[in-house]
Amino acid sequence: MHDIGSAVSAFSSAAASGQVSIEAEAAAEALSQIGNIRDQLTSLVSASDIGQTVVQIGDNPVGVAMAQKSMDRFDGQDSFMAVLRLLLEQTEKAETALNQCIRNYVDEDDLRSLNLGGTQA
Fold first, then answer.
1. CB 94 within 8 A of CB 34
2. Would you say residue 77 lies in a domain?
3. Total structural domains in the chain?
């Protein structure tokens, strides 16, 4: 997952600095797919909020400890939910970067048309 995060961060930085641009039509399919993935991950993470309820295994020290351990595994730092949240964060970051690349392309195109227009006068 670290490699994905590094790649998305590098892409995001390149887009933010204007090093990457893409025509909107060329990016439409990728943007649509990223949006679908983001929506699905958002649904999964939202559905997991149901897990915020307390697990009740038994009303004794062992039951309470087992319940806490179950909740920690469900929503702890190395849990499936932590990975889903991280993946959602990276997906949102990639979507933002791709949108920035589209804006970069439009800005480049506008700048080129201004330069061409200025040299022809």
1. yes
2. yes
3. 1
Residue-level pLDDT at 100: 93
Domain assignment present for residue 3? The answer is no
pLDDT in tens, 89-118: 999 999 999 999 999 888 776 767 777 665
CA distances from 23 to 30, 39, 82, 103 (A): 12, 24, 34, 9
**110 domain-assigned:** no
Residue that the structure tokens 């949240």 belong to: 85
The runs of H, that is alpha helices, within the chain are 2-16, 24-48, 61-75, 80-120
Cα distance between residue 104 and residue 96, in whole Å: 12
- Contact indicator for 6, 86 with CB cutoff of 8 Å: no
Length of the chain: 121
CA 61 to chain centre: 40
Residue 35 within any structural domain of the chain = yes
